């Protein structure tokens, strides 16, 4: 998945913003001022950090060698997906959707209704 394609997919989520609080090489995607994705590089590979259910995160790490506990994140609730070509685009998109939904689920009900209605 090319970065511009990934960026467009992330920014298509309702009320998503892009910022650079950690420097211009680290792209932080937020919904309602809450981070749900972070794109950067680690070990010379493009990497995407996403929020993830702990049980699913453990299973993903077992299935995909390029999915690890979140780099510089809470390793129980975040994963890092390294773009080495081994994780299909459809799976990356599913994980993005899931991360967005997990973050929105922690917001007040009025915000959830607005963000998930789109």
Automatic annotation (TrEMBL):
GO terms for molecular function: DNA binding. Keywords: DNA-binding. Pfam families: YjbR (PF04237). The keyword DNA-binding applies. SUPFAM superfamilies: YjbR-like (SSF142906). Coiled coil: none annotated. Signal peptide: none annotated. It comes from the Bacteria. This is MmcQ/YjbR family DNA-binding protein. It comes from Alteromonas arenosi. The lineage of its organism: Bacteria, Pseudomonadati, Pseudomonadota, Gammaproteobacteria, Alteromonadales.
